[in-house]
Design a protein that fits this description.
Layout: E1 9-10, H1 13-25, E2 30-35, H2 41-53, E3 56-61, H3 81-90, E4 95-97, H4 101-104, H5 123-126, H6 130-145, E5 149-153, H7 157-169, E6 175-179, H8 199-205, H9 208-220, H10 225-239, E7 243-251, E8 267-275, E9 278-285
Parallel strand pairs: 1-4, 2-3, 2-5, 3-4, 5-6
Antiparallel strand pairs: 7-8, 8-9
Helix pairs in contact: 6-7, 9-10
Length: 286
């Protein structure tokens, strides 16, 4: 596929490692940003953050099949490699890693990864295959790139918690950095799936962060969490969302539930809701 001449592209693990090992021999530190492509300003922010923490930045563009269920949008997931390369180059990325599925997953590969508690509930309840696939591809990518630091967006907050546990439990020598969610002028979290929304749906989507902010304020004030979560889910339906998978207030450290039913420490309010066939997720700190 065509790509900008300004950004080198590695297609194989061997090409990737040759470049990265060359940087390390020169004494450069390496940052890494994994993506599934269809990039936007949020991804560029991750690359810039990695660039502040390392001398050279690698970004992967790989639509990972192991985290999609059979009924999900793997085939429809937007792919725009040439545009992605331009955006990465503009953000200061030094190398794009864009392997084929066959490079990442040889036909006879059998290894799987189960992270356990951090992957259970919330997204794990509605997309039970996802975090096993995320853990596997992230472990492979970190082993392939061998960066000093890797940056993940906080929009996928449960994913960030899963990755941190994965790295800790498997003793992977990399610093994991969470980067704050980038939002549009209306507060909607930037997402590749926003491209699926009609103009009317986009207006509804921009109400999501307001509902979460209100729920967070009530939780911070000591309100009962079951009632707050239920009221927020109802509010999302009232503003036009077609279905709500969950609204939940959880401990920020590990996404565990608050035993007393009220917030007694750092917390996050998280939600997943549908507009037609498009599923949006968001979260914010309390």
């Amino acid at each position: 596929m065509p790509h900008t001449p300004d950004l080198p592209v590695a297609r194989t693990i061997a090409e990737l490692r040759q470049t990265v090992s060359g940087w390390k021999r020169q004494g450069f530190t390496v940052g890494f940003v994994p993506t599934m492509g269809a990039l936007h300003e949020g991804h560029q922010t991750l690359v810039r953050e990695a660039g502040l923490r390392a001398d050279r930045v690698v970004a992967s563009v790989f639509v990972n099949p192991t985290q999609f269920a059979a009924h999900e949008d793997l085939g429809a997931y937007p792919r725009q490699e040439a545009r992605d390369a331009e955006l990465l180059a503009g953000a200061g990325c030094a190398l794009m890693y864009a392997p084929a599925v066959e490079e990442m997953y040889p036909a006879d590969a059998t290894t799987t990864i189960s992270v356990g508690a951090p992957a259970e509930g919330l997204e794990g309840a509605f997309r039970p295959q996802m975090f096993g696939g995320v853990a596997l591809v992230v472990a492979k990518l970190l082993n392939q790139v061998q960066p000093h630091v890797a940056v993940f967006g906080e929009k996928d907050f449960q994913q960030l918690i899963v990755v941190r546990r994965l790295v800790r439990d498997l003793d992977i020598p990399v610093e994991i950095v969470g980067s704050p969610t980038i939002r549009d002028g209306h507060g909607l979290a930037l997402s590749s799936r926003n491209a699926y929304l009609s103009a009317e749906q986009l207006e509804v989507a921009r109400r999501l962060n307001g509902v979460l902010a209100e729920a967070g304020a009530k939780a911070s004030a000591g309100g009962a969490l079951p009632a707050i979560e239920s009221e927020a889910a109802t509010a999302l339906l009232e503003v036009g969302f077609s279905h709500v998978d969950y609204v939940a207030v959880r401990r920020a450290e590990d996404l565990g539930e608050f035993a007393g039913g009220t917030v007694d420490g750092p917390a996050r309010v998280l939600a997943a809701a549908w507009l037609g066939k498009t599923r949006l997720i968001d979260n914010m700190a309390i």
